[in-house]
Write a structure and sequence with these properties.
Number of helices: 8
Strand order of the largest sheet: 1-2-4-3
Low-confidence stretches: none
Strand content: 25-35%
Mean pLDDT: 97
Number of strands: 16
Order of helices and strands: EHEHEEEHEHEEEEHEEEHHEHEE
Helix content: 25-40%
Structural class: alpha/beta
CATH superfamily of the largest domain: RNA 3'-terminal phosphate cyclase domain
Distance between the termini: 25 Å
Shape: globular
């Protein structure tokens, strides 16, 4: 049984979710200790509980220690069971993080798996719904992972109540990413989402992002998704595609920060990524790293920086696979080779 230290590196929920997902995928039992030890409230939280419960159901695994607040868990995977599943996180815990864990654990499915989740679609410390669909799912689709994602209702902190459905289809094999050359990114697209707040907030956010794009001579199209939710919330996600990849940025609205600042931050971050010559953005790289490892051939990409999340994920992947990460730094860009 693999022994995983949940306090390593970034020491958050990422280690727990990915360790169990990789256990289900590789059929290697795991014991995870010191779960989220570096967090103000350590141990398993509701969104982690839902992610593990979902993976357990999908692969008929055996588990010990799955309770809110638990700092130790053991997981022994079984066989993948295609079908339909439904879970309620019970809080505004991130739906997208749960979906990411489920996709990774289900790559060997022989028939479609459909999961409906209730929780938070656009919350802190997680990919927003639009980043999840427009950036993450697009990238893994280029590698051969076929999914269908449907947003039913947005959910914000603190009440959540968002709903989404994801279907994971069988795949033949994972294709490598060959993204060493600088890409020609075209138009910047985006979505400003808003619920239970005045219209001027979303319009100001949109216009601020558009102004930054104009200054950088980037043609942009941003739409507003106005809806209702159990809790008020807003944010913006921007992305830009080349022929071979996509990069994005996302920011949520927060008290004390103007709408203009949120829009400017999102546009400036994406433009900064593009100008450095990156081919995968700083936040997407740790999310797609497992797929690069699982691809049959060597993958390569250019990134602006390797975050603590990414470095922690590298360490975790080495616990499961015989993989080498070669990092070549040059000025403001990093070449990452996965072999």
């Amino acid at each position: 049984m693999l022994q995983i230290d949940g306090s390593y590196g970034e020491g958050g929920g990422q280690i727990l979710r990915y360790a169990v997902a990789l256990s289900a995928l590789t059929k290697k039992p795991v014991e995870i200790k010191n779960i989220r030890a570096n967090r103000p409230v350590p141990g398993i939280r509701p969104q982690h509980h839902t992610a593990i419960s979902c993976i357990k159901s999908i692969c008929k695994g055996a588990i010990e220690g799955l309770s809110i607040g638990s700092s130790k868990l053991t997981f022994s995977p079984g066989e993948i069971q295609p079908g339909e599943y439904k879970f309620d996180i019970g809080t505004a815990g991130s739906i997208t993080l749960v979906f990411q864990a489920c996709i990774l654990s289900s790559l060997n499915t022989t028939k479609p798996i459909t999961i409906k989740l209730t929780g938070g679609t656009d919350v802190k410390w997680a990919p927003t719904w639009d980043y999840f669909t427009q950036v993450f799912l697009t990238l893994i689709q280029k590698m051969g992972v076929n999914t269908d994602a449907q947003l039913i209702k947005r959910g914000y902190y603190p009440k959540g109540g968002g709903e989404a459905v994801l279907t994971i289809h069988p795949i033949k094999k994972l294709q490598r990413l060959q993204l060493e050359e600088k890409q020609d990114f075209g138009k910047m697209k985006g979505i400003v989402h808003i619920a239970n707040l005045p219209d001027h907030i979303s319009e100001r956010m949109k216009q601020a992002a558009l102004k930054i794009a104009v200054r950088s001579n980037i043609q942009s199209f941003i739409r507003v998704d106005k809806t209702t939710s159990f809790s008020p919330g807003t944010g913006i996600t921007l992305w830009s595609k080349s022929d071979h990849t996509v990069m994005g940025s996302t920011f949520l609205g927060e008290r004390g920060v103007t709408s203009e600042k949120i829009g400017e931050n999102a546009a400036n971050q994406l433009i900064k990524e593009i100008k450095t010559g990156a081919t995968i953005d700083t936040f997407a790289i740790d999310q797609i790293l497992p797929y690069m490892v699982l691809a049959e051939e060597e993958s390569v990409c250019m990134v602006r920086a390797l975050t603590n999340h990414t470095q922690t994920n590298m360490w975790l992947l080495k616990q499961f696979f015989d993989v080498e990460f070669e990092v070549k730094e040059k000025q403001d860009i990093i070449k990452l080779i996965v072999r």
